[in-house]
Design brief:
With 537 residues, the protein is α+β, with helices and mostly antiparallel strands. It folds into 3 domains: 3-178, no CATH class; 189-329, no CATH class; 357-492, no CATH class. It starts with a strand and ends in a 43-residue tail after the last helix. The relative contact order is 0.08.
Length: 537
């Protein structure tokens, strides 16, 4: 797997050094030699899991996973198998964290880029390491004296990576690509010891102090519900269908449960207590996931709820977030009706017309976006001038209708447009502005309809259909109805018909060219000097 060298392969980087023998190394702000990528070599899977678990507790795996690749590599010399974790890390502080956690997992971090990496800095070399010789010579020694391929600068193929340490170097060939998210999901839970005297003696109740999830098998769900109901336990639940069950199981949520109650539920066969570790993941009590799932939300894709069951050795996926129902509606109860002991007089139905009231306008300080403008006929000339200032999108969407009091300009945005452009009612500084209180119902700006009714009910009361409008022109007056076919496009109405004129064709006035003549004359040494044009002659 490794090929030892008789001489040192690396040399410490000096303070302020900016040029390196190995391509891809650059100094960061502190002068530490870093590369675009980091490579961690793990000798076994358990060391990789320990590294990811320590990293998830100290930082967020959601930051590391997007750029992380995981491969199973085989050494070209010796045939040893390792796990290669590669990620982006151009910051010295991020590399320091990776180096510290890799050392805790008995692994080594290397810095570099592409296919060649060198050992990261340590106390003996606080600024990092650089190659002591050229890379071509080093790789030739690793391959047993075979020179590098002239067509490639390093002699490494696309699926090979070289790591260089103090006195050895190794070349690994990628044998298999591993999905880190799938690996984390398939990790086996580890058992965690519980208090011998029961959960009631633990102040934190093994993580269940604030909330506990209880997964109950279908056969005993009703009995567990009846027991919790008799004990007056606040609960909520939902029926969930697990992967291997024909009947749905019961998932209960208990808020701040009592310790003695949990000690009663935990030993019951078919009952599993689950500790919520993230908004979409829960782990069975007495077990722990190797990865801190609260910092690895990207490892649980989709909207599913993940239940990690330790004793069953399974991971259950529940489609979508569980929508819990109050426990009182889950408990089976018997309903008995008794005969009435008194006679009930029939209700006398009367006309409800006395309860009817009229819609009216009253002043309001609420600010609404203008949806229409009533321009008096005396200001039509100003409107003609302002047409040039209206944005094209607002002009194309605006519509108009001539009324007795003026010209009503209605904005096409909002209800019929995309709502991302200015409306004509907002741009025009003329006349009286109208706001929309319901689809197609316009009232003067500074007013509101009283009483406040549902928008759809207002349309039904005004008998509006399709794209019709109802406009309250003034307080105390009845609304007017504007049918959709009465509305005209503003841009088509304000622009007059364009007339074109026939183009006048003119005969060319230049005279025709006369036949030319050719003359042969003797040219001197400088033929162009003294050449006389036809006009000079």
């Amino acid at each position: 797997m490794l090929r030892a060298m008789a001489r040192a392969l690396l040399e410490p980087v000096a303070a302020g050094q900016t040029r390196f023998r190995m391509q891809g190394l650059t100094p960061d702000a502190r002068g530490i030699a870093v590369g675009r990528e980091a490579l961690v070599v793990f000798q076994s899977l358990d060391r990789l899991v320990s590294f990811l678990g320590a990293y998830s507790v100290e930082a967020s795996l959601d930051v590391l996973l997007p750029s992380m690749t995981l491969e199973r590599g085989r050494a070209t010399v010796g045939g040893g198998v390792v796990l290669l974790l590669r990620c982006e890390a151009a910051d010295g502080y991020a590399l320091d964290r990776l180096s510290r956690l890799a050392g805790a997992a008995r692994s080594q971090l290397y810095a570099g880029a592409g296919s060649v990496f060198v050992r990261y800095r340590e106390s003996a070399a606080p600024f990092g390491y650089d190659l002591a010789a050229s890379l071509a010579e080093l790789l030739a020694e690793v391959r047993g004296g075979a020179g590098p391929d002239p067509s490639r600068g390093t002699g490494l193929t696309v699926d090979e990576v070289a790591v260089v340490d103090h006195d050895f170097a190794s070349i690994y060939r990628s044998a298999e690509r591993i999905d880190p998210i799938s690996l984390i999901q398939r990790l086996e839970l580890r058992q965690r010891p519980l208090p011998l005297t029961g959960l009631a003696s633990d102040p934190e109740l093994a993580g269940l102090r604030d909330m506990a999830l209880v997964l109950v098998a279908p056969g005993i769900a009703e009995r567990v519900l009846a027991y919790l109901w008799r004990k007056e336990v606040p609960m909520a639940g939902v029926r969930v269908t697990l992967s291997e069950d024909r009947r749905p199981s019961l998932l209960l949520r208990l808020r701040q449960p009592r310790g003695r109650l949990l000690d009663v539920l935990r030993p019951i066969p078919g009952v599993e207590l689950l500790v919520p570790v993230s908004p979409r993941a829960a782990v069975e009590v007495g077990y722990v996931h190797p990865i801190h799932l609260a910092s690895a939300s990207s490892c649980l894709p989709g909207d599913e709820m993940y239940l990690f069951r330790g004793r069953a050795g399974r991971v259950e996926r529940i489609d979508g977030a569980p929508r819990f129902v109050d426990g009182r509606y889950l408990v089976q109860t018997e309903v008995h009706l008794r005969e009435a002991e008194f006679e009930v007089d029939p209700v006398e139905m009367r006309d409800a017309g006395q309860l009817r009231i009229d819609l009216r306008l009253q002043p309001s300080s609420r600010v609404r976006e203008p949806r229409a403008t009533l321009v008096p006929w005396a200001q039509i000339e100003y409107l003609r001038r302002l047409i040039y200032l209206i944005p094209p999108s607002a002009l194309a969407a605006a519509r108009m209708v001539p009324l007795r009091d003026g010209l009503m300009v209605l904005s096409g945005g909002g209800r019929r447009g995309d709502g991302r452009t200015l409306s004509a009612g907002t741009v025009l500084p003329l006349g009286q502005r109208f706001a929309e209180v319901a689809p197609g119902v316009l009232i003067p700006d500074g007013q509101e309809l009283w009483p406040r009714l549902r928008p759809q009910l207002v349309r039904e009361l005004l008998n509006l259909e399709g794209d019709d409008y109802a406009v309250f022109l003034a307080p105390g007056s009845d609304p007017i109805h504007i049918a959709d076919e009465q509305l005209l496009a503003l841009d088509a109405a304000v622009v007059g018909t364009l007339e074109t004129q026939e183009a006048a064709l003119v005969e060319p006035s230049l005279p025709a060219l006369e036949p030319g003549s050719v003359s042969n004359e003797r040219l001197g040494r400088f033929a162009l000097w003294g050449f006389r044009s036809q006009q000079d002659s």
